C-alpha cells in the first residue's frame, strides 16, 4: 500500500469484483482517452474477473487508485521489451467525476517510485497521444521528459493525432522525488 497527497495505491480484495467491474464499465468515457484508436470492447464480468481483476488482486503490475476511501482508477506497468528492460507505466481514472483533480499525479508519484524500487531498470516510460492533454500535462508535472513525438500516427474519429512518449531516468527521479517529498512535508 502506498500513499501520497490523499491518494492510496493498493491491491484489490476478492469482495470488490462486482463493484470494480461496475466502476470500469458504468461510465466508459475513460476509454475515449486511453488509446481509443486501439479496439476496445466492454468486458463481461467473467472476463473481467479472469484478467484485469486477477492483476489487481496480485498487485504485481497493477494496483487500484483509491481516493477518499473509494476506488477511482488503476495504475499499471508493462514491458515494451523485457529483454532490453524497456518498461512503460500506465494510469486510468475510470470515474470521470475525479478528472482534473491532480489524482493522476498523486498516484503516479508513488507508482513510479515503486517501479524503480522493484524493477532492475534505468527508465520508466509513459506513452500517450495528443488527444489526451491531461495526460501530457501530468507527465510534464511529474518531471518526465518528452522523448519523442511521432506525428499523425494515431487516427481517431476522422482525425490524425500524435503519439507522445515521455520518460524519466532513475537518477532524475531520485532528484525529483526528494524535491516532491520535501515540498509535501512543508505543506
TrEMBL record:
InterPro entries per the UniProt record, alphabetical: Acyl_CoA_acyltransferase, GNAT_dom
Name of one Pfam family that matches: Acetyltransf_3
Residues spanning the membrane: none
A GO MF term: acyltransferase activity, transferring groups other than amino-acyl groups
N-acetyltransferase domain span: 7-167
Superkingdom of origin: Bacteria
SUPFAM superfamilies found in the cross-reference section: Acyl-CoA N-acyltransferases (Nat)
PANTHER family reported for this sequence: N-ACETYLTRANSFERASE DOMAIN-CONTAINING PROTEIN, SPERMIDINE N(1)-ACETYLTRANSFERASE
Protein name (database record): N-acetyltransferase domain-containing protein
Organism name: Vibrio campbellii (strain ATCC BAA-1116)
Native organism taxonomy: Bacteria, Pseudomonadati, Pseudomonadota, Gammaproteobacteria, Vibrionales
Amino acid at each position: 500500500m502506498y500513499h501520497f497527497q490523499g491518494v492510496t495505491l493498493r491491491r484489490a480484495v476478492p469482495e470488490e469484483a462486482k463493484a470494480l467491474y461496475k466502476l470500469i464499465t458504468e461510465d466508459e468515457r475513460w476509454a475515449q482517452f486511453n488509446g481509443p484508436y486501439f479496439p476496445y470492447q466492454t468486458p463481461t464480468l467473467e472476463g473481467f474477473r479472469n484478467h484485469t481483476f486477477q492483476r489487481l488482486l496480485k498487485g504485481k503490475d497493477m494496483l487500484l487508485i483509491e481516493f477518499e476511501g473509494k476506488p477511482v482508477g488503476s495504475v499499471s506497468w508493462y514491458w515494451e521489451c523485457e529483454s532490453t528492460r524497456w518498461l512503460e507505466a500506465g494510469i486510468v481514472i475510470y470515474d470521470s467525476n475525479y478528472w482534473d483533480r491532480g489524482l493522476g499525479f498523486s498516484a503516479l508519484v508513488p507508482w513510479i517510485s515503486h517501479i524503480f524500487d522493484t524493477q532492475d531498470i534505468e527508465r520508466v516510460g509513459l506513452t500517450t497521444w495528443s488527444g489526451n492533454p491531461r495526460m501530457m500535462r501530468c507527465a510534464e508535472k511529474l518531471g518526465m521528459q518528452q522523448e519523442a513525438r511521432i506525428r499523425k500516427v494515431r487516427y481517431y474519429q476522422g482525425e490524425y493525432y500524435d503519439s507522445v512518449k515521455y520518460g524519466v531516468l532513475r537518477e532524475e527521479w531520485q532528484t525529483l522525488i526528494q524535491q516532491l517529498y520535501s515540498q509535501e512535508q512543508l505543506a
